[in-house]
């Protein structure tokens, strides 16, 4: 390839990657830079779906491309962002980078604007004799009427267009979720499933030997507490891990609320639980992580944020990462049924996963429930967002929430503090 053309393409690539259409999407930037460099290196024949999946998205060499469309989805996302980029009135590029449908090899087209021809001036007609005063007055009246009509029509048109514009504006809730709504990939709603143990069947039977007809069915074993004497001695084989159990109630309520909201906004979601999703999945789709200390991905992404979860000597807190920063603890009464809890809601445009990520997590399950209600309730969310400075849509956000808990049920979340960057 001509070195001069290559230089121009690289310059255009840098402008594209720094533009508002790409700067908040790490995966789109990586994909476009990968295919452009391969093309400029004369290796366009290597730009196949499987090759890109293996080398860029770190898939296994034998992965099923039909079941894992990550390359096709990302290519479509890049095409859409390029289209918006070149439709922008501020873009004046010498070369245009395209990714044709059906191919992953980019094309470089000259984009020289056509010269604007200056229209030829028509010869001036000779002045006509002056009309009499009556004719001149009639023409003035007619012209005035026309001007007034045009003005009225223009005002009416402006008012109509303004009304249409306001009607078409996205709501504050849609602006909060906009980075996820603008992608083709479904939003992954990720819940943790910590290890959970249940009494073994043998332990139930030993209890039934002294309490006839108790715990004879699985329905009863799953829905009643085994009332052993607190001083009963157990051995480790009496407790067994159960893979089908363990999702926290607050996490489920948060997932249901967010899934319902995004369904109304036309955004598909996929719920992933426990080991059914990996960090690689978070690389490929926007996601919402639910839960704090029970969710390892939350605990990997939140360190370094302004508000972060901290566990020290069995004490769970939220801390502010500044000198003399504040610390929040949840507080419950002796029964542990009522008290207050704290939570974090984070909106990260480009998290460590490389994708848009929302985190809703509390110190306890009730805090997570309140965080889920905060991001899925348009009234609560929009009330909080209206207090933020202009331009929050393009920033990362963190909200520190507090909620009152009664009989293990969280009340309305209240914003205690927020941070934007």
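^ Assign residues to that structure.
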């Amino acid at each position: 390839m001509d070195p001069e053309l290559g230089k121009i393409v690289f310059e255009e690539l840098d402008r594209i990657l720094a533009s508002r259409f790409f700067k908040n999407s790490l995966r789109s930037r990586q994909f476009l830079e990968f295919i452009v460099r391969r093309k400029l290196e004369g290796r366009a024949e290597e730009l196949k779906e499987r090759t890109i999946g293996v080398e860029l998205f770190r898939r296994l060499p034998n992965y099923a491309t039909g079941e894992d469309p990550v390359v096709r989805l990302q290519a479509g996302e890049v095409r859409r962002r390029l289209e918006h980029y070149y439709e922008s009135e501020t873009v004046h590029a010498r070369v245009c980078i395209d990714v044709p449908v059906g191919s992953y090899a980019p094309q470089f087209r000259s984009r020289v604007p056509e010269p604007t021809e200056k229209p030829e001036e028509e010869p001036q007609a000779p002045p006509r004799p002056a009309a009499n005063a009556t004719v001149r007055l009639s023409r003035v009246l007619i012209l005035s009427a026309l001007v007034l009509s045009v003005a009225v029509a223009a005002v009416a048109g402006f008012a109509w267009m303004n009304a249409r514009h306001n009607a078409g504006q996205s709501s504050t809730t849609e602006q909060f979720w906009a980075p996820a709504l603008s992608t083709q990939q479904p939003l992954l709603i990720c819940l943790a499933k910590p290890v959970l143990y249940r009494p073994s069947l043998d332990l139930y039977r030993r209890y039934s030997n002294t309490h006839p007809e108790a715990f004879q069915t699985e329905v009863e074993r799953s829905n009643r507490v085994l009332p052993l004497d607190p001083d009963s001695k157990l051995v480790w084989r009496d407790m067994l891990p159960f893979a089908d159990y363990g999702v926290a109630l607050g996490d489920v309520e948060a997932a249901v609320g967010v899934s319902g909201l995004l369904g109304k906004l036309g955004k598909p979601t996929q719920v992933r639980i426990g080991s059914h999703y990996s960090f690689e999945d978070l690389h490929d789709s926007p996601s919402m992580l639910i839960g704090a200390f029970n969710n390892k991905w939350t605990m990997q992404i939140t360190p370094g944020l302004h508000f972060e979860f901290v566990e020290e000597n069995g004490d769970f807190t939220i801390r502010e990462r500044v000198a003399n920063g504040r610390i929040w603890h949840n507080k419950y009464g002796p029964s542990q049924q009522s008290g207050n809890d704290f939570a974090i809601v984070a909106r990260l445009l480009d998290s460590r996963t490389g994708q848009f990520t929302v985190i809703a997590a509390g110190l306890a399950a009730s805090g997570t429930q309140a965080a889920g209600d905060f991001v899925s309730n348009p009234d609560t969310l929009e009330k909080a967002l209206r207090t933020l400075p202009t331009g929050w849509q393009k920033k990362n956000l963190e909200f520190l929430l507090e909620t009152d808990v009664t009989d293990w049920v969280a009340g309305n979340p209240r914003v205690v503090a927020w941070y934007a960057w």
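Residues 3-110 form one domain.
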